[in-house]
Design brief:
It is found in: Cell membrane; Cell projection, Lamellipodium; Cytoplasm; Nucleus. Pfam families: EF-hand_SWAP70_N, PH. It is a single chain. By secondary structure, this protein is of the alpha+beta class. Among the domains are: 1-201, no CATH class; 206-306, Pleckstrin-homology domain (PH domain)/Phosphotyrosine-binding domain (PTB) (PH-domain like, Roll). The protein is 66% helix and 8% strand. It is built from 15 helices and nine strands. Strands 4-3-2-1-7-6-5 form a seven-stranded antiparallel beta sheet, covered by helices on one side. A two-stranded antiparallel ribbon has the order 8-9. It is rod-shaped. The protein starts with a helix and ends with a helix.
Amino acid sequence: MVGLKEELLKSIWHAFTALDLDRSGKVLSHNLCTVLNVPHDPVALEEHFRDDDEGPVSNQGYMPYLNKFILEKVQGNFDKVEFNRMCWTLCAKKNLSKSPLLISDEDAFKVWVIFNFLSEDKYPLIIVPEEIEYLLKKLTEAMGAGWQQEQFDHYKIALNTSREGLSAWELIELVGSGQFSKGMDRQTVSMAINEVFNELILDVLKQGYMLKKGHKRKNWTERWFVLKPNIISYYVSEDLKDKKGDIILDGNCCVEALPDKDGKKCLFLIKCLDKSFEISASDKKKKQEWIQAIQTTVSLLRAGSPPPHKEARQKRKELRQKLLAEQEELERQMKELQTANENKQKELETVRKQLEAAAARAAEEEKKRLQTQVELQDRFSLELEREKMVRQKMEEQVAQKSSELEQYLQRVRELEEMYKQLQEALEDEKQARQDEETVRKLQARLLEEESAKRAELEKWHLQQQQTIQMTEAEKQELENQRLIKEQALQVAMQQLEQLELERKEALEQYEEVKKKLEMAANNTKSWKDKVAHHEGLIRLIEPGSKNPHLITNWGPAAFTEAELEQRQKSWKGKKTTSE
């Protein structure tokens, strides 16, 4: 009853929207009660349509009355065609297009009824492009023409860009325009509409002329048979005016082919519970079509399934609803994704700002690091300059010592001035001792400076280790700084190694100078011996004085204290004279 109520509401909706309900609602209600075979309730009708605020245009409205007093009382024992024709009469004049159509008013009425059958269950009523395609295909097939899919695709694209579907009057105008029935005459189009109307609205599964054998006189008479979901009716002719009988179908019925007999061909038998019917088709093809159609109808009755066209319509609706639900779910997911994307964009923007702040901090840290690095480089350069000056001084001192040694050797070679050379040799020896001490102090200072450098490098190394322990975000940058400092450390280490080598070289030179001094001392001693021997100064070894002995380069007791004082005065006088 729910499906029947929905079908009735669609037709009533057209009539309802076409009337001035303040005055014509009573007329519509009387007509509905008449065609639907529903008992009239004048009291409820007058009460509902009285002229006050509770009338049809009030909050109470017309639909509550329609559902309560009319539709709930419908039993199904009414003529659907007459019901639809009454609703059509009320709405067609106001809505039907005034432009000339290639179809008659009767055909337009049938298209309107088909529209109500195929339209969606929502108001205002429309027929979606999929159902338009289904209807046009059925009409084209009934006309025996070929379906133009490409033409309809273009029409569908143009339709989808402007609206969801067509109204009943737009569908009538589309069919009546001949856009999809070019080359067909009005009669062919009318027959196609009638055939589709019979199938979809009147549930006519098959119809045609066949011979039927009588039960009493056993004679064969031509009848017009009409197959519906649960009955086969047969008439005198196809105008359906003179009905001769019905064959009630149920799940217990069956149909079977019979061999030719009594001069009749293409025979088949319809068996029911109470009686059987012998039928003769015009040819074998018709016979097979009728047998197949009746078997299909009986199978549907056994399964309790609706007619094929209604089942197909329901499946198409379910498919559209499923696709719509999937589309809505997809739109919901897209909105969720969009929302998530917006949130992610906000998070990325926040992260970007944080990164910019971190970059600013890193730039500030980099600026400080560069400033520190420049200061360290300046200090390092200053230290290098100092080391260079120290090395130059050492070279000058070594050169001076070399010159002094050369002068000392020159004096030793002069045999004419033995004493003078000896005195100068002693002075040079004393100066060499002082130089030795100076070189030793210089070496000690170099060692101290090397230790200071090593301490400073260790301090840099510790700073580098502390820098390595900074945050992960600055790790890569600090790694680069560490590499630069390591390179600077390696350069400093190389410089220290170079200073170490120079120190070793200075030490070696010092050792060489020392050896030369020892050799000079030996030579001086040998020359002293020669001079003493030459001048008769060699004295026999005698017991020394009890006074404290003096120790010189020649050993203990080489000179007395008086001799040493006399010699010192002589050296000072010579030195003053030479200056």
